[in-house]
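A quick aside before the break. I want you to see a complete sequence-to-structure record at least once, exactly as it would be stored in a machine-readable document. Don't worry about memorizing anything.
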Amino acid sequence: MLYRSAKGGGKVVNFEQAILAGYAPDGGLYVPESLPEINVSQLNQWRDLSYKKLAFNILSLFIDLNIISSDDLKGLLDESYDTFEHEEVIPFYALKSYKKTYVMELFYGPTLSFKDIGMSFLVNLVNFFLKRNKQHLSAIVATTGDTGPAAAHFIAGKSNLDGWLLYPKDLITESQERQMTTLQYPNIHPVGVYNCPEGGDDLDVVINKLYRNKSFKKKLKLSSVNSLNWGRVMMQTVHYFYGYLKISKHTNHTVNIVVPSGAFGNLCAGGLARKMGLPIKNLIVANNKNACLHRLFNQGIFSKEPIHKTVSSAIDILIPINFWRYLYFCVDKNTKKIKNWMDTFEKTGKIVFDTNTYKAYSKGFLSLSISDEETLTTMKNLYEKEKYLLDPHGGVAMAAAKKLKETLRDDTLICLATAHPAKFPEIIEQIIKNKTLPKEATHPSIEDAKKRCQKSYTCDYTHLYESLINTMETNWELHHKNIK
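That is the input. The structure line, written in C-alpha cells, reads:
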C-alpha cells in the first residue's frame, strides 16, 4: 500500500513516510492509492471481535508487514488502548426516549474526548518510527478544544517528540486549556494565542506558512499529528466498523450514523469506511451555526464565512480541510481537479461545485445546521427524561437526530458523543440550573487539573509566525545542546 498527495505533487511514498511527514510536500493531504474492499464474509468474521482485534484487522489492510510487523502492531494497539477507562474502549448507551437510537460514547480515553482514539495510536506510531530511526520530530497542532489536550497527553515524556499546541486564547474552555498547560513535561509547549478573528482556522494558516518555510521545516523536522495526518483518519475508520458491528443485527442491516462535525476528519473516516464496504445508509452531518459543512452538503458550496462562537466550540470551524481527502475518492482520484479546487479556494475563498461533483460527494449524506438553543434544549430534555447527560457536541448530534427522526422513520441511529460533559461545566450548569454539578458531569482528572500550576506561552496572533520561529528554534537548539 503506497500513499500520494491528493493534489498530485511530489513522490509516491510508503506508509511510514506518509505518517512522519504529515503534509505532503505540495501542501496536499496524503491518501492511499486505493481503498481496501471489505465483503460480507469479512464483516461476519469480525462481528464478535474486541475493539483492539478489529483495529488490528482493519489497520493491517493499510500497513504493509514489512513496515510494521504483526507483533509490533499488536503491541502499539495494546499501548494505545489499555489506558482507556472502559474495558471495551467504546461502550454504547441505548436511549430510552428515542426508539432504535444509540449513543456511541467515544470519550473514555485519558483526555475524555474522541480525539484520544486516533491520537493515542498515531502518537505511539510516530514515536515507534522515530525510535527505530533514531530521529526527533517537532509536532505542531492547532486545536479548538480537544485535539490539543489529546496530543499533549500522548506526546508528554516522549524523548523523540516535542509537542507545540496552538489554541485560540479564551475560545476553549478552562478545563480543556488546563489539560494542556498543567502537564509539567519539558517537551510539551502550549501556546495560547490572542486575537484570532477566525478562531482555530487562523492558527492553521500560520502552521501552513511554517510548513512552506522549507529551511525551518527541515531544521525543526516539522510534522503534525492532527487530522491532516493520514494516521488519524485511518484509525478513526475503525470505530465506524465497530459501531456498525455492535449495533446491527446482521450484515444486511443498514444503520445511520450522526456525527457532530466541523473539520470533517471524523466524517471523512466514516465516508471512507462506507466506500470500503461498510453498509452505512446515511452519514448525518450535524453542524453548528458555523455551517461550513451544511453549505457543502446542502448547497454544494465550499466557502469561508465569518465565524460564530458557539457552545460546541470544538466544531467552530470554517475550513473543513479533510473534505479534500474524501473528495479525491469521489472524483476518480483526479488530482488535477483537487489541485485546481484547492488553489481556487486559496485565492477566492469560495467554490461552487458543478452538479456532477456535488452529486458524487453528497450521496449518502444528510446535513443540518443546529443552533445553540436547539443544542441546549436537546441536552436539557434528555437529562430530564432519563438522567443521561451529553456534552454540547453530542447535543448537536442528538438535536440533528431528533429533527431527522421522522424522515428516517424506524431506521437505526447511532449518535456519536465525542467528549465527556465534565469538560464543559459552565454549559452543564446552564442546563441543570444548579452550580452543584451531578456526578456524571465531573471527572477526577478535570478536578485534579484545577489544583495544578499552569505553564504556557502566550502570543498575539499578529506576531505569531515570527514568534513561533524564534521560540521553536531556540527550544530546538537547547534540546540538541543538552543531548550532546
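Two observations worth writing down. The chain has a mean pLDDT of 94. Residues 92-112+230-441 form a domain with the Rossmann fold fold (CATH 3.40.50.1100). We'll return to this after the break.
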